[in-house]
Amino acid sequence: MKSVNTSLFRTIFLLILAVSTSIAQSAVKLPCLVSDGMILQRDILLQLWGWASPKESVTIKFMDKTYQTKADKKGDWKIVLPAQFAGGPYTISINEITIKDVLIGDVWLCSGQSNMELPIRRVLDLYEDEVRHANNPHIRQFRVPMRYNFQKEESDLQGGEWKSVTPANILDFSAVAYFFAKDLYDKYKVPIGVINTAIGGSPAEAWISKESLKNYPHYLDAARICATSGYIDSVRNAESQSSNQWYSTLNAKDKGISLWNKKDFDDSGWDLFSLPGYWADKGVGQINGSLWFRKDVDIPASMAGKQGVLRLGCIVDADSAFINGTFVGTTSYQYPPRIYNIPAGVLKEGKNNITVRVISNSSRGGFVEEKPYKIIAGNDEIDLTGDWKYRIGAEMPPTGSQTFFQYKPTGLYNGMIAPFTNYRIKGFLWYQGESNTNRAEEYKILFPDLINDWRSKWNNPQLSFIYAQLPNFMKACEQPSESGWAELREAQRQALALPHTGMAVTIDAGEWNDIHPLNKKTVGHRLALEARRVAYNEDIVSSGPVYEGMKVEGNSIILTFSSVGSGLYTNLDLQGFAIAGEDNKYVWANAVVLSNNKVKVWSNQIQNPVSVRYAWADNPEGANLRNKEGLLASPFTTEQADIVRIEGLTGSLTELYITNNKTGVYDGFDYELWHDKGNVSMTLREGGMFGCNWSNINNALFRTGKKFDSTKTHNDIGAISLNYGCYYQPDGNSYLCVYGWSVDPLVEFYVVEAWGSWRPPGSVSKGTVEIDGGIYDIYETTRFEQPSIQGDTTFQQYWSVRTDKKTEGIISVSEHFKAWEKMGMKLGKMYEVALCVEGYQSSGMANMYRHILTLGDTTIGSGTENKDKLSVSLAATKDFVK
Fold this sequence. Notes:
disordered C terminus; 17% helix; eleven-stranded mixed beta sheet; 15-stranded mixed beta sheet; single chain
């Protein structure tokens, strides 16, 4: 009987275990972002997703409606919900999970490096009164925890929660994102959510997916090394041991530890140091290791015994501070402001001692100038600048390098962006570039590639991308000079050629002595202005003047600007312009406003000017060109360069970047860019491949192909065909086609492969044909007294318009010619056959990644035969000079 009972209990136990395991396995799991307090994007189909057991049923109840699906064989599930108006709070039930306090509004992904990451608590010197009582449940932040991965894209974040604006929570909000969100909320009165992914010091390449870094083999190699099993741990261990050894040796050698911080220590034999400043500049020398600084101050009775604050500006690199021998604070690296609380009872009436131990790792230690150095207690404060006494505690060699793996390519994308590309958003907010200023030429390609990468991951080429241009930083130069920061700002300006982008100019919102300026409200406000124009389609002046073109007149250069609003502001002495002749040596220039959108620039030192720079410096102090709305012009250069070779890209890739109306010959192909208004750019690549962008245009066309001498018919030339592949993202009226002309008779012809909701206006339908496996509608149009290759005249247009959209494959051009001729649509002698992207009152982008033109026995062009699609990007060149 005993054995039976034992067997029975065992069976019952196993059944209970099986049921428990089944229940545990079947529980629905949600991504961290889909949680209490979340804000969902309004006016767009919503996606909720998660994980469960394979084939498990998932039921969502939301706003009195029920939605159901089943997990796939891997356990993944996704449900699409109808678009919703702004509102809330709501509750969403997903099986046994209840998500509370859900709002519908606008969601912005905010990313970049430290100036986006910088929390409100770091800028309280400017905004303490403003944020002390902030309380708005309709503005919320989700702070994404730092995570990198080089092996794969993460499926979920490593934690995080939605928090609304309260006096306690706001201190951890990104300052830029908060002021941006507040401006939008004040304007539209809809909930605003910010997903904060910014990581201090991160370069752009850390935020880009592996697929979009394929043109950067050096970055892919770095990511591949980091993905090697055990590599990161081995580097960390080695560097940790080296660092620990360095600090252990320093502390063992430092003669002042536990002695020189005492209140009554005799420092009468110490040398003097005038604070602030760097000791390399003040006779101390290039010293690594520890230095001790002491100062005695008289504390009045009104401050004695009170709680207080010790302000020690910013210190390079680390410090520990003592008052009367009592430790009051420490900071381990150079950037944060030193704000240390002094406990009640530490300050005494009469003589008090302040001691600071400073550790320098890189020979440039010191106290940053023009920062606050003082003691504050009650309404009183004591200035601490001036003479201090100092002594070297211990000298050391420089510390070894430290590897920040979060800065390595693809790592942050995989860990912090990829997990929530299912989450619908309004757009992107970006503040980054400081870590790429030593590679500004590359950034001209890298930054647009990042924009297009993120848009492709969200499967929405129209997502708004709003970004901050770098602010002023470092000491101003007396003479015009080269600048990595200016080059990076120029790369950021050029990225405006991409559609649905906006840039906030911030060259007046920085600080010369701090890479983390406090004035984040101005930055947030200007970003919000750009968002209102780009993302919310408001007809407002959202930016300052943008350089558009130049013309040399005698010894002057006339500059033309767009985005002038009510006109250029004239009541000021223009500063910040430099001009150069053919030797490319710049001198400061005179400048005056000529009209609403023109500025004249000249210098008596330059008789034959060729180029102008504006605000071209790390810190363009005094640059003041702006419109009447008070918004500053972006820094720019008019310098133009011929074709340049871009280092570090695959093979010997050469690119030519064009932004104005031009025709010419490049790499064996005739090309043309033409537009009548708006923003356009065209990037020509080896082998006839090209990329193009257009926004807010009326008419624009980009084409590349072959021109003939008008002596041969297409039959004389031989079979004409085009093997092409194109990444094509139009927004509005646009088409991808073969384009050309014949003469005798004069005919303009099109073979249209992909288009918007469009057919040739005023056309006569001639029937249909099947060519290359596709059905084409044939049309003929008469153009009366219109521009042509023979001037304004009357001519015919022939059209083959594919009924389905095609963006890669073979176009048998000669077969279309033959089909037209059978319908009585005669062609003459060939003048041109070209691949063309044309737009009308639209925006968009296209990237031709394969372009092989066959003309009888001749073949020109090239492309990626494996059909890999290059990302649409701007080239690292300036405007082309014919």
